Amino acid sequence: MTHHATVLVIDDEVRSLETLRRVLADEFEVIGARSTGEAEAVLAGEMVQVILCDQRMPGETGVAFLKRVRDQWPDTVRMIISGYTDSEDIIAGINEAGIYQYVTKPWHPDALLASVRDAAALFRLQKEAGGAAAETKPSPQALAAAVEGRRRAERGRYEFDRIVHAPSSPVEGVIALARRATLYDISVLITGESGTGKELLARAIHYGSARGDKPFVVENCGALPDELLESELFGCKKGAFTGAYQDRVGLFEVADGGTIFLDEIGETSPSFQVKLLRVLQEGEIRPLGAQRPRKVDVRVVAATNRDLLGEVDAGRFRRDLYYRLAAFPVHLPALKDRPMDIPPVAARLLDDVNRTFHRRVSGFAPETLAAFAAHRWPGNVRELANEIQRMVALSDRDGPLGPELLSDVVRPAAPPVIDGEGGGGLLRERVEALERALIEASLRRTGGNISRSADELGLSRVGLRAKMERYDLGRGGADAD
Question: Modified residue 4-aspartylphosphate is at which positions (predicted)?
């Protein structure tokens, strides 16, 4: 039987606590606590490896609680979660409380899960190295092998082949382009709307490259004020600012030899951009308060949902930094521009939800898939994931999810149910109704442009025209190339 590390999650908000529990439950034994008092009772009776504590707690801050934990249960790996408004308090206590990582809100489930995996691995390696008897302590080679095994598993989890898409999807071209980026040590800029999977693509580039056996480090540049962002990325010396009680290693140094992923790079201030440019130009960092710079060998993959060239023209983003970051630009199209991906992506998301919720929902009714195809998905894959989670939570059976479970945002786009029962009719009739709805949705999106709709649907122009005639669609519409 595989032993799962125990994670203690502390949050006074029930909804947040349950969300964190769902994200972590597949890989860890998760114990929830709604107060620091409850958490202390858990720690007194349970062996806990990782603590994930919210900063804003009734009666006591997360940092203050973790300071006490450090004294009584020093072996635990302590993590704090909060928004940027609490950053000064957290900076002041991050070293004193021995906090391993500061997780900022809003957090992404994949990134949070990866951080907790790292924390659990750190606990295990520390115990192997420091807690074993002298004659049974693992050798440096054994520790290196353990780290390598974990990284090998990470590489398998984030291969290009695991990026879900249809054979006719424009994502095929994106992946082919990104694969080329793995062959050369070059900065990559990934653009695209929020929720399109930019971090997933960045991880695939890293693990597919020669740096794949080195660290992959993530920082959300839009979530932190300048001083904290500089400390996180470049490090700091003891006394560099209020709360800097000891030297701190920055993420660029942690990522030495590997890759750093700078998400939301378009949100950074001009003053920070100057400092980042120097790092890229000189290949060295200067921790806050340090007299001398330090050389680092790090590949930078940046991402943004902004039109960065437009930001350059508007004077909000440095042109020289843009061209340093965008040596190899890659654009991820929005979900609305690749509707052929919706069925396979939805199927993968449903598998994930089934594992998280311990359910066995078998799929989607044709009418539901048609509604998915007709919706614009401004939140992209993240919005689709939320919709599927909600539908599974509302469903009392494990059969296909029907259109009656759709949210009001998505339901107006749903085509009418094929018959009065919502589940009858010959298979051929149901498939034809779905095909007609998909074609109608595509023609609406493209303004009747047959060439673009044919590309979206993976059909030839002649094939699409034949189906339009069969279903009596599109008369009088545009036919531009």
Answer: 54
Work out whether strand 294-295 and strand 284-285 pair parallel, antiparallel, or are unpaired. antiparallel
pLDDT in tens, 230-252: 888 988 777 666 555 556 678 89
Contacts of 416 (CB under 8 A, 6+ apart): none
Token pair of 318, please? 């440095």
Residue 91, Ramachandran bin (φ over 0: left; ψ between -120 and 50: alpha; else beta): alpha
Instruction: Pick left, alpha or beta for residue 167 (phi over 0 → left; psi -120 to 50 → alpha; otherwise beta).
Output: alpha
Does domain 337-471 fall under CATH 1.10.8.60? My reply is yes
Domain ranges of the chain: 6-138, 157-333, 337-471
Instruction: Give CATH for domain 6-138.
Output: 3.40.50.2300
| Structural fold of domain 157-333 | Rossmann fold (3.40.50)
Q: What are the structure tokens assigned to 61, written together?
A: 């801050």
